[in-house]
Write a structure and sequence with these properties.
The protein is built from 1 helix and 11 strands, in the order αβββββββββββ. It is α+β, with helices and mostly antiparallel strands.
């Protein structure tokens, strides 16, 4: 019986190591195919890489998407990083560098953190985000901070706190050192 347990342990170790190595080697091709299948080849990802820690990075992402209102959405993201962490809690972390969306605006950098209730319970989650140097024609915002709580399998936004620091709207000659927007219990038509 001891030999069978040892053999089972060795087989499980071999399977995990092979899957991990496969994710590192074949991950970029799989991710590229999945994105193209889901979005129809309208996203170009350059220098896509998967690290041994299973962190996904890309140097440039160019996209041309159609919104539900059939309005084309074109832009470019420089420096994309998607990873996960196990510090105090499990979290998925995404970071992007300079981002520009045609006819909408630009962001110098953005960082988002998605924290589910637990590793095995994804029925609700917290989202934290920060955007720096947001520009849109005559609107300039130094920092945007987002804190949100999703519930009921992502169909309800239980709370959203949006804070804008050093915001200015030139067309209205409006300036605000700090603008805070809060909403509670917003039901969504589709889950996020």
């Amino acid at each position: 019986i001891l030999m069978r347990l040892l053999k089972l342990l060795l087989w499980m170790t071999l399977i995990v190591c092979t899957a991990w190595g496969g994710a590192i080697v074949f991950g970029p091709a799989i991710i590229t195919r999945a994105v193209n299948a889901a979005i129809g080849g309208k996203v170009e990802i350059r220098r896509l890489d998967v690290s041994p820690k299973l962190q996904v990075t890309a140097s440039v992402i160019e996209f041309e998407l159609d919104t539900p209102q059939n309005i084309p959405l074109r832009g470019m993201v420089r420096g994309f990083d998607l990873g996960w962490q196990f510090k105090d809690e499990f979290a998925i972390v995404a970071k992007v560098g300079p981002t520009r969306v045609e006819d909408i605006g630009s962001v110098k950098s953005a960082q988002f953190k998605f924290v589910p209730t637990s590793l095995f319970d994804w029925s609700s989650a917290e989202i934290e985000g920060a955007l720096s140097t947001v520009n849109h024609e005559q609107i300039d915002i130094e920092t945007v901070t987002i804190e949100a709580v999703l519930g009921d399998t992502f169909n309800v936004l239980k709370a959203v706190d949006l804070t804008l620091d050093n915001a200015s709207v030139d067309i209205l000659a409006m300036r605000a050192e700090k603008l805070k927007i809060e909403t509670r219990d917003v039901e969504l038509d589709t889950s996020i």
